[in-house]
Amino acid sequence: MSDFVLDMIEQGGYWGIALLMALENIIPPIPSELIMGLGGVFSGQGKFNVYAVLAAGTAGSTAGNYFWYYLGRKLSRVRLNAFVERWGRWLTVDLQELERVNRAFVTHGGGIIFFARCVPGIRTLISLPAGMFDMRAAKFIAWTLAGTFLWNAALVTAGYQLGAHVANINDYLGPISTGVVVLIVVFYIYRVIFWRPFVAEKIES
User: Fold this and answer.
1) 159 backbone φψ class: left, alpha, beta (φ>0; ψ -120 to 50)
2) For residue 94, is pLDDT > 80?
């Protein structure tokens, strides 16, 4: 994984970063932590402009999130409910949770999008209900840009500091990449094991 990301960034430059960030949101598990962190590292080493890295990563991430938003706009609630009823156990989502998300988007949609962009594991998935619950495209894009910019800025800054002080970053790529992917997998497994449908909890009580 780390070699693929490294090659894309070295050969594609800012376009490579933008493409990787778009793919990171469409085809997990390419971790944004690794992509933007490496962009920051190369900036710290003087190979890239840090502001261009941030702009490319934010634009690519927003484009990838818009893919799921657009897909959500095309899905009907009937089809979504049927999908959740069948696969909800593995998505750790039930129909009651969907309804709660719907009500939350009506009252706090912009804030939800903004803060979700900074939460690993849900920052991409949140785009789907934003589309399904009819959030306006302009509002979705604005809040996505704001939240994504904040998240990417933190990653680029960390990478920049590392790149400015570490000569051979390749020694760190393998463990960092593996650690990020393992954390994502562990979080998902934890959710699957301990998740219980809302209805089941009420019946048991």
Assistant:
1) alpha
2) no
- pTM attached to this predicted model: 0.71
Specify burial of residue 194 (Cβ count, 10 A radius: 0-12, 13-18, 19+): exposed
Contacts of 52 (CB under 8 A, 6+ apart): 14
pLDDT value at residue 29: 63
Identity of the residue numbered 27: I
Which pLDDT tens digit goes with each residue over 58-92? 999 999 999 989 988 887 667 777 777 776 666 66
